[in-house]
Amino acid sequence: AWFHSIYICLEVSSFPACSPPLSVPVSARYVSALNVEMSNVTYHISNLLEKMTSTDKDFRFMATNDLMMELQKDSIKLDEDSERKVVTMLLKLLEDKNGEVQNLAVKCLGPLVSKVKEYQVETMVDTLCSNMVSDKEQLRDISSMGLKTVIAELPPASAGLCLTANVCKKITSQLIGAMGKQDDVSVQLEALDILSDMLGRLSSTLVSFHQSILTSLLPQLTSPRMAVRKRAIMALGHLVPSCSPALFTQLAEHLMKELSRGSPGANTRTYIQCLTTITRQGGHRVGEHLEKIIPMMVKFCNVEDDELRENCFQAFEAFVRRCPKEMSPHISMVIKLCLKYITHDPNYNYDAEEDQEDSMDLENGEDEDQESDDEYSDDDDMSWKVRRSSVKCLEAVISCRRDLLVDLYGSVCPALVSRFKEREENVKSDIFLAFVALVRQTKPPHGSALDAGAKEEPAVTLLKKQVPTVIKALHKQLKEKSMKSRQGCFSILTEMANVLPGALGEHIPNLIPGIVYSLTDKSTSSNMKIDALAFLHVLLSSHTPEVFHPHIKVILPPVIHCVEDPFYKITSEALQVTQQMVKMMRPLEKRSSFDAKPYVKDVFSSTLKRLKAADIDQEVKERAISCMGHIVSHLGDQLGGDLQPTLQIFLERLKNEITRLTAVKTLTLVAGSPLKIDLRPILMEGIPILGSFLRKNQRALKLNTLTALNIIVTNYSDCFKPIMLESVLNELPVLIQESDMHISQVAIMLLTCMAKVCPSSLAKIGGAILPEVLHLVHSPLLQGGALGSIVEFFQALVLTKASNTGYSDLMKALTGPFYKAKSSESMSVHRQSYYSVAKCVAALSSACPKESSGTVNNLIQEVKNQRTSESVRILSFLCLGEMGRTTNLGGHKELKTVIMEAFSSPNEEVKFAASCTLGNICVGNLEEYLPFLLKEIGGQPKRQYLLLHSLKEVISALSAENLKPHVENIWTLLFKNCECAEEGTRNVVSECLGKLTLVNPSQLLSRLKKQLSSGDFLKAIQDPDLNVRRVALVMFNSAAHNKPGLIRGLLTAVLPKLYSETQIRKDLIREVEMGPFKHTVDDGLDVRKAAFECMYTLLDSCLDCLDIFEFLNHVEEGLKDHYDIRMLTFIMLARLASLSPAAVVQRLERLVEPLRATCTTKVKAGSVKQEFEKQEELRRSAMRAVAALLSISEVEKSPIMADFVNQIRMNAEMATIFESVQGDPISGAVESMDTS
């Protein structure tokens, strides 16, 4: 410290005082300032360099440290002379006698790489490489560290700088020479280490050296030193991803040739390890050689050498994971071998262990009977390595081959369960992991899980049968001293509870003692307790309260003890479990006979202690608030005098920024409790605080606050005065915006709630709030839940009799904009707002039935009046329809004539509005209007399309009960019109038939099937008629999208037919003469497009049922097809890059060429504007696919991809497009495609 203070004093005093005179012009002053700064840096650096030559090691250390600080600044600029001096000095310091100075000098080399010119970096590299072969060991070590530092700081190859390539080539040629020094192993090791680093980061820049690197690495595999062999293998692994196919073949053939020589030895193990490493790094290339490799591996498994067997199983694991397609024929044989060697423990008798359990010390794994055997000890036993590697191989099979799940339950599952008794802890841990993988794979994929109609998967049924056996096998293990074993047990049980909710119920008595032991044992680690608590939480969440009631007395005390644990993670997990147990003790949704009173005090006091603590972890604070909220919500009536002080603590947490969100959620929970907890004492202060949250810029807080206020206003309306809600009402106008429909919806629901229970609070609503609601009604974005909330709001508001909210005021405000619209522009107001306003008008009329009749008459007059603008006529029709839905308009006799006349209107929108109106009025007056509608459909062929639309409205809106008496009449009529010449009419008929069938599916579906020539919907995919095939594919797509469970079992038969429809058929391509031009028409395009859309949907809903490689074959073809198909397949490719990266990597070389062709194609000069726009969009889509492919780490290392990316970067136009699409979210591009 003393030295440093003197040194700083010297530094400060040595700075020259110079600044340019203020009278100099600005530009000159700027240049002058730059020059001064440069000279200051140069002066400072030369000062440091001078101190580095000091005889005092402390001065040298300080100066080097300061230089490092300077070099790390982005702003530093060195002149040529300074660069040379700094490089020379740092290289000299590498030979410094003081180790600390040497280390600092090495650290300086990293930032220096980007601060000096290329030839200086080359000087550094030359010196470091020559030092590498020095006789001095310390200099060799420090120089190799220096080289690694330089390599780590070189810019990546993708930056396209020459510096990296030149420096790498320089280093590589020196390293290849250094590796040849057989006499000095340490030089070889360092050279291999550096080469490995360089190949790992910058392999693609060394393509010209790949052959010589391979040639120099292969002899190292036979080195007598294991460390050399291992490092050579590592370097070869890094070489593989970016080497050429020819070079890879050379390496693979060399390894196979050496392995086929016969007699196994140390070198055989090395070659197998090498094969495993290159499979992990570039596995898809190994696939084509597997037919020769697998028999050799099987042969080596039978050799009595446990380490060799271990290597073989590691290789099998790599093959299974990296070459799934090529391994398919061999997978059953690999499973058989794994099952054979998972029990390979020749020196241990498990039967004896079971018979003599008491006389054996399981901890040390020693068998007293064998101690007399001098020739053998446990240290020589390598059989555990074989067992572990075979289990890991099985885990790979389980993880990669979900299609074999049912078979795996027959063969692998019992074997794994029987090996839970494994004596070697590491092996047992891997057995548990393999079983967890099996259970995890059993969980139905997300697509079928959402499908309520799907049958239980066979694998789930098989797992349920295994539950008793698994529990029996784990029962003893849960009491073992080994924490690793117990953690493994809990991971299995947690996964089973998640996959099979409720299935562990009858076994809970067997599990409770093990859980209690792990929570109470004094030697238990923190992680062990956390795992036990996490499992208990999952168990409680996935089972009914009744199964736990007998055990609460035993399980609650240790959990409460954990709540008081000093380690915050245990406390947090224990609070979550306590919360779940409170819900179990007294479930609110149904009556329970369980008496919770004896436990209330303990649960409350332990949680309260954590709730009051201020100096605890954020997670514990939040969990304590939430847990106490559940206690109050479920047991509040038993807290007596403790209740109000607890609520005051909630109020305090509401005022704290860190805990306010959790406090709001908890308040919502308490306010909604059926126990009617008395919140009045905190509401006077709490409501304004909640109101203030509505203006915070935190969406989650606003949403939760609105929900809380909704429940509080509903349940505690008797204690509200208008002034209390004023602070809330003032914040609401800003929240009712179309930019966030969900918040708008919840805010309007709150207003509705206020209008119903506290109408006086809305006295001033007309000022700021109502205009925002009306603006939202006229928004084109309004639909669904938000529209429903506004409809309810108007119904409640009109009954409050507040100022400016009478029936006529609201009607005027709603319909006003349509009267202002110009008559020539019937759609100057967005179409959606017509429907929204019509629903609101109908809602007001149903709330004020006295006004309703007059409104209907006015609307009929508006429709009849020829001078009325189109927009008002459309709105009037839609309003009549919405009102007719809920009110019988049979008294207005002229209505039928008015509607039928509108069908002849020249305006399409008016016709469509009249069609909707007829359907809706029919819903409200079925007896009179349905016969009229059916008669008109039969007798008015020219108006059939519109009348069928009306019928569709009726079928969609009515319940099955109301429709049943009329089904036969409608069914007969629809089938009369299903062969109509107009395709649009046929489409409406098909929609009506589909909706009608749902009224009575058991009978009508079979009648619908009879109408098919084949009698089977999916056979229509092979129909000779193109249009039938297309529609059959659309139907299949809809099933895959909405009910994947229906088609999963049929995919084996359907996929070949689906794939055949993706092929281009030349017999469907024809030329049409258009004047002097010939135009090509592809009649098969629509069918192909429908087939590709089905393929895309299957990716999301049935991925596990697809052979991805076969799927990719057709995607490849689609990449060369028509514009529409290519756009689809680019999106599919982007999706596949995230779903099945390994398969995409394997096919990369075949996928890149079509992408390259699309990106480099130019439109002919003189083409129309649309052609240029199409090509531009195609290129953008292809570039998005390229960006998605590059997100897979291995793709960047591929030579063909590196070449393509380089081509993109070299072309300014392509580079610009690529840069612009890299910001696009691939998922967004994919999700935007609606194939439903």
UniProtKB/TrEMBL annotation:
Residues 350-381 are annotated as: Disordered. Keywords: Repeat, Ubl conjugation pathway. Gene3D superfamilies: Leucine-rich Repeat Variant (1.25.10.10). Residues 1046-1208 form the TATA-binding protein interacting (TIP20) domain. Residues 130-258 form the Maestro/Maestro-like HEAT-repeats domain. It holds the Pfam family TPR_CAND1. Residues 351-381 have a biased composition (Acidic residues). SUPFAM superfamilies: ARM repeat. HEAT repeats lie at residues 86-124. GO terms for biological process: SCF complex assembly. InterPro entries: ARM-like, ARM-type_fold, CAND1/CAND2, HEAT_Maestro, HEAT_type_2, TATA-bd_TIP120. Belongs to the CAND family. PANTHER family: TIP120 (PTHR12696). This is Cullin-associated and neddylation-dissociated 2 (putative). It comes from Pygocentrus nattereri (Red-bellied piranha). The lineage of its organism: Eukaryota, Metazoa, Chordata, Craniata, Vertebrata.
